[in-house]
């Protein structure tokens, strides 16, 4: 019977792009272990056991396969039902365990040892282990390097011919960086194996015209794929003039990639044959999986399990396919017959239905693609995998993504931020008003307001646009023009009305336009050339918009050549509204051979507003990329151990809230009854250096007077109920109470107003300031998120909130505050103030935000924190109200712990 956590099982990508399944060992693995040991070379056995060990005895097998998953843990890696590697630890001291691993000779060098060490280390930490020790023979350089390169703090000693390595298992920045770098290389390689096949089989190739199978085959052949193509048909001798085979197993040569176009209920059988054949990857264009309901979802999970167990990645199912324009491959494994020419843009689309239209739109605009992937149901390969690949792909300069959901949002934001530091990432997020995940897709619907998603994308450097048209508008600037160094825009044209439209649009987009240079309707190409040269040479001009109305003078081609020439000479971007065309007109393109990147081509837009919006996207992205990323300040007074003990104590007393929280716009799904006690909430905040004002709940005027005496004057009496600020119009507080009579009168007044609708509490009064609200919690779409806004009725009704991902840097905290529309109230003098010394201490508020972000990031048990209000005055940021909800912590957070592929049900 299983007695280990489910998250100890995982699918992983190896360094060569293949996959393996990791799981704890069980007694049922006895025969697999014997077969595994029998395949090991004498040298490998000697390195593991320090002696010849040609055969395992029954006693050995029982000891190795029977573990308690506490003091003795062993993990195995399997590929196609064969055991290929084992790692184990045995506890030898209260916080110390001895670790050892062995990898089958034929699979050494694939990264199995490194990924097994990551997973066994995570399991050991869960069981209270802090150190690993390993005894290694000096000549076993491969094993020594695995430990040394793990990124953990390591020590080495030498005694009696054996090297003893000691590893501190506490994760470090180095170990995390090593893990993520290995993940990036492995996942990038797995995508490269799909995009650069040397041979392709089309399974389900049909003799009937316009079927999916025949379409896929014709497109491969018509795209001039550089390797052999093998149709697979159970009866036909040939399909569209190409020799066919009854099954993939009867193809005499190696098959790297298989396009699967058979009925959904037969796909798994085909995948098993591909596994036996040694196929590297699958594109499943067949439908009938997760998009059709529970039965299809189960079929989809079985497809992925079967493929990954055999070392294969899967694109799809229910997808359009993949393409690679590299001339050495010329791969069109899609259902679209026409692909754009080679270019600098990598494109990922979840939607297969839209994929063909998207490709047509790209071609119409004169843009080129490096690679294209339509992932359909995204059961395995996702946009995250493609970002890993595109990060180092020299052919891709811009990344476009059409997203309907995020399978692993934490990983998406991490990878997008890293990729965006090198290459622009432009994303369309469909379903902006929906809070659900599209049918057939993995969990990850973006359950936040639309503006919140935009702000989180911006934090990660992703250029979020509203539709596909805007995505291509932005892509034209990113792909073919340099990035602007600032917001100042020069405007040149031969129509004053168009020039004013440009200026107005620039102001609305947050740019800083200069006064337009109107050349008049009779302007010549030489006039344009002179004006553009002057604008580009001006230090206070960072980009140029040219508007040209050809109907006024027949010089269109001459002006186009001027634009092209000046663009090639300049390191500043130029965009235009030219000839009322959209895209890159032929006159503005580079004259050269097909498949060139059109570097220096001048993007043209049908309206000035479109041109300016695209330029604004490029400007904001450039500013994001050039700004300092900020730092995570040291907070020495954090007590994680005490916080853990406080959470454990609170969970014993409270009923954990199980629902996801929707903590924006005043909506709450957590019941007040499930909140932890106020004392526990204050204690937990104090562990992270956040002092919350105590309050005392009272049920009579006499109790209120006593409470005020205990807490001190001046005092406050307030009604305490969720969302009371909005419903009561801000009249639920009586402040500046300096005598018992004041307290008694205030209590009776509020009691008369609210009756039994809200409890009344007494609190010591803080000095006047600006009331704000800080909320944080674990959002199911993005992970730990922090929200900020002002605590007043108007802000609540207008939902004037800003959002950032945790943990916050100092720059993130400052951005979070400045992002709300009411932020100027925090940067001026409050009412009644007479000097700058009374200005709100925004620095203290920033530190509070950082501390809250660290708290929710550190403890997944914290579902929701509501600090309302936080009063910001000259002396600091004072937490006057604090509620907190705990939940049952997930077994493992997405994108936390050792690297793994998105899970399916094992």
Mean pLDDT: 87
Number of strands: 37
Q: Helix tally? A: 26
**What proportion of the residues is helical, as a percent range?**
25-40%
Shape: globular
Give start-end ranges of low-pLDDT stretches. 432-446, 590-598, 658-669
The separation of the N and C termini measures: 15 Å
Structural class by helix and strand composition: alpha/beta
Radius of gyration: 32 Å
Work out the strand percent.
Answer: 15-25%
- Walk across the major sheet and give the strand order: 1-2-3-4-5-6-8-7
Q: Could you walk me through the main structural features you see in this protein, from its secondary elements to its overall organization?
A:
- By secondary structure, this protein is of the alpha/beta class.
- It is built from 26 helices and 37 strands.
- Strands 1-2-3-4-5-6-8-7 form an eight-stranded mixed β-sheet, sandwiched between helices.
- Helix 17 (556-569) links the parallel strand 26 and strand 27 (574-578).
- Helix 19 runs antiparallel to helix 20 and helix 25 (810-818) crosses helix 26 (842-858).
- The longest helix has 23 residues, at 173-195.
- The chain is globular.
- InterPro entries: Acyl_CoA_acyltransferase (IPR016181), ATP-grasp (IPR011761), ATP_grasp_subdomain_1 (IPR013815), CoA-bd (IPR003781), GNAT_dom (IPR000182), NAD(P)-bd_dom_sf (IPR036291), Succ_CoA_lig_flav_dom (IPR032875), Succinyl-CoA_synth-like (IPR016102).
- This is Acyl-CoA synthetase (NDP forming)/RimJ/RimL family protein N-acetyltransferase.
- It comes from Nocardiopsis terrae.
- Residues 20-170 form the N-acetyltransferase domain.
């Amino acid at each position: 019977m299983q007695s280990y956590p489910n998250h100890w099982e995982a699918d992983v990508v190896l360094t060569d792009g293949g996959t393996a399944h990791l799981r704890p060992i069980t007694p049922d693995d006895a025969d697999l272990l014997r077969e595994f040991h029998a395949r090991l070379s004498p040298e490998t056995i000697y390195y593991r056991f320090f002696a010849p060990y040609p055969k395992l005895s029954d006693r050995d097998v029982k000891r190795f396969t029977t573990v308690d998953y506490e003091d003795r843990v062993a993990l195995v890696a399997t590929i196609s039902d064969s055991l290929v590697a084992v790692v184990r630890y045995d506890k030898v001291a209260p916080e110390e365990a001895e670790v050892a691993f062995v990898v089958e000779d034929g699979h050494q060098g694939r990264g199995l040892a490194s990924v097994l060490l990551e997973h066994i280390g995570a399991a050991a930490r869960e069981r209270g282990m802090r150190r690993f020790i390993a005894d290694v023979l000096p000549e076993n350089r491969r094993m020594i390097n695995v430990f040394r390169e793990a990124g953990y703090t390591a020590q080495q000693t030498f005694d009696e011919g054996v090297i003893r390595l000691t590893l501190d298992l506490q994760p470090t920045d180095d170990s995390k960086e090593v893990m993520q770098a290995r993940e990036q290389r492995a996942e990038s390689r797995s995508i490269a194996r799909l995009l650069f096949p040397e041979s392709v089989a089309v399974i389900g190739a049909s003799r009937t015209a316009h079927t999916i199978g025949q379409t896929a085959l014709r497109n491969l052949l018509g795209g001039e794929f550089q390797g052999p193509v093998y149709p697979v048909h159970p009866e036909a001798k040939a399909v569209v003039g190409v020799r066919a085979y009854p099954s993939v197993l009867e193809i005499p040569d190696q098959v790297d990639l298989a396009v699967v176009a058979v009925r959904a209920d037969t796909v798994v059988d085909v995948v098993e044959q591909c596994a036996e054949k040694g196929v590297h990857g699958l594109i499943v264009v067949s439908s009938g999986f997760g998009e059709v309901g529970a039965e299809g979802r189960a079929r989809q999970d079985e497809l992925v399990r079967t493929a990954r167990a055999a070392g294969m990645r899967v694109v799809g199912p229910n997808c359009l396919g993949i393409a690679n324009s590299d001339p050495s491959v010329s791969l069109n494994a899609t259902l679209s017959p026409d692909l754009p020419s080679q270019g600098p843009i990598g494109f990922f689309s979840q939607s297969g239905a839209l994929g063909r239209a998207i490709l047509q739109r790209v071609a119409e605009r004169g843009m080129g693609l490096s690679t294209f992937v339509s992932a359909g149901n995204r059961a395995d390969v996702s946009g995250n995998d493609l970002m890993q690949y595109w990060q180092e792909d020299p052919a891709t300069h811009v990344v476009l993504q059409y997203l309907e959901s995020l399978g692993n949002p934490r990983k998406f934001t991490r990878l997008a931020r890293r990729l965006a530091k090198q290459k622009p990432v432009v994303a369309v997020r469909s379903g902006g008003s929906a809070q659900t995940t599209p049918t057939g897709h993995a969990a990850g619907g973006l359950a936040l307001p639309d503006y919140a998603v935009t702000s989180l994308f911006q934090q990660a450097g992703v250029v979020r646009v509203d539709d596909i048209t805007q995505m291509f508008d932005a892509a034209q600037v990113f792909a073919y023009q340099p990035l602007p160094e600032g917001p100042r825009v020069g405007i040149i044209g031969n129509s004053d009305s168009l020039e004013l439209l440009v200026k107005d649009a620039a102001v609305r987009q947050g740019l800083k336009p200069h006064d337009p240079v109107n050349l008049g309707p009779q302007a010549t190409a030489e006039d344009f050339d002179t004006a553009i040269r002057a604008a580009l040479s001006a230090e206070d001009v960072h980009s140029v918009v040219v508007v040209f109305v050809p109907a006024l003078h027949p010089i269109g081609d001459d002006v186009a050549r001027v634009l092209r020439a000046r663009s090639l000479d300049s390191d500043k971007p130029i965009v235009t509204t030219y000839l009322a065309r959209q895209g890159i007109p032929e006159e503005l393109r580079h004259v050269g051979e097909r498949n060139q990147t059109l570097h220096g081509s001048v993007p043209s837009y049908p309206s000035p507003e479109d041109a300016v919006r695209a330029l604004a996207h490029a400007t904001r992205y450039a500013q994001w990329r050039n700004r300092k990323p900020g730092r995570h300040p040291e907070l020495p007074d954090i007590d994680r151990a005490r916080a853990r003990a406080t959470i454990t104590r609170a969970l014993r007393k409270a009923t954990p809230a199980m629902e996801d929280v929707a903590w924006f716009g005043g909506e709450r799904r957590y019941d007040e009854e499930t909140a932890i006690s106020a004392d526990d909430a204050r204690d937990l905040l104090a562990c992270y250096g956040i002092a919350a004002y105590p309050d005392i709940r009272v049920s009579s005027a006499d109790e209120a007077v006593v409470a005020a005496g205990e807490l001190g004057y001046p005092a406050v009496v307030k009604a305490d109920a969720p969302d009371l600020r909005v419903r009561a119009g801000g009249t639920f507080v009586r402040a500046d109470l300096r005598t018992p009579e004041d307290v008694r009168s205030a209590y009776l007044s509020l009691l008369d107003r609210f009756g039994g609708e809200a409890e009344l509490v007494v609190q010591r009064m803080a000095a006047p300031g600006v009331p704000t609200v800080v909320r944080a919690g674990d959002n199911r779409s993005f992970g730990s998120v922090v929200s900020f806004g002002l605590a007043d009725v108007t802000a609540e009704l207008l939902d004037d909130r800003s959002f950032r991902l945790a943990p916050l840097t100092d720059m993130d905290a400052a951005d979070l505050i400045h992002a709300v529309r009411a932020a100027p109230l925090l940067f001026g003098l409050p009412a009644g103030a007479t000097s700058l010394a009374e200005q709100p201490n925004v620095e203290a508020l920033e530190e509070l935000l950082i501390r809250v972000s660290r708290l929710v990031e550190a403890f997944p048990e914290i579902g929701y924190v509501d600090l309302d209000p936080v009063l910001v005055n000259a002396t600091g940021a004072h937490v006057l109200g604090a509620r907190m909800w705990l939940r049952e912590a997930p077994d493992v957070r997405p994108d936390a712990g050792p690297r793994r592929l998105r899970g399916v049900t094992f």
